[in-house]
Amino acid sequence: MIYYFSATxxxxxxxxxxxxxxxxxxxxIETASTEIVLKxxxxxxxxxxxxxxxxxxxVREFIQKADIRPAQNNYVFTVATYGFVQGFVCEDAxxxxxxxxxxxxxxxxxxxxxxxxxxxxxxxPAKVQQQVDxxxxxxxxxxxxxxxxxxxxxxxxxxxxxFRPFTDRLLTYERQTKFFAVDKAACIGCGLCAKKCPVQAxxxxxxEKTETNKPGKNTVWTAERCALCLGCLHRCPKFAISYNNxxxxxxxxxxxxxxxxx
Length: 262
Known about the structure:
Layout (H helix, E strand, L loop, with lengths): L1 E3 L5 H13 L3 E3 L6 E3 L6 E6 L7 H9 L1 E3 L6 E7 L6 H10 L7 E6 L13 H23 L4 E2 L10 H11 L5 E3 L9 H5 L5 E5 L10 E5 L9 H5 L5 E3 L19
Parallel strand pairs: 1-2, 1-4, 3-5, 4-6, 6-7, 7-8
Antiparallel strand pairs: 9-12, 10-11
């Protein structure tokens, strides 16, 4: 079984590729049951983005809540998708699984476009697509290692774990929803951001109906902090959502396999 979290499609694509190669299924942690009953010789994989060098909060919570019932000869692994550094993702996953008496056999990584557009510029479609294409051989290599049951943390661009407390504080700070803003002139009140928010941090509240916003709905963050997946920003059909006034010139991103355009 393969479990993944994905806001913009990178980890979903990697999970789908691995699942197909192993003849198993890929499940989104947003809808999957936390009861995981494994069969003999069945692999268990987690495919996850990198969130400020760490295992994302949602993936961490899923593992913590999961009732994992192993069998004989299960091969357990984590694959981190990342754009800059993978940091501590695989080590975070190993430690979370160890707390549940589950041994993680291996960790891997795949470098892909980084959707953290407060820093990274994804406005050039050709350059972004090249990054997507460059990830395919990496995915094939990871699949080959999984099939061979390679042991150990084989992920790239790791960081020493003693930095973890510092990045954790940065992540807590950046997760504040006060940094998000909506261009009310561009927003059409479709509610996609609220519907897709994995932590229900967004509500659509009544607003004045306009020719642009015919439903008369306004995007409002009702939680102090969110998962910081930036799914709302990248999925918005009118690119009306920004983060800290640093994202509008850097474009939107979804993996080309799942991008449905505006």
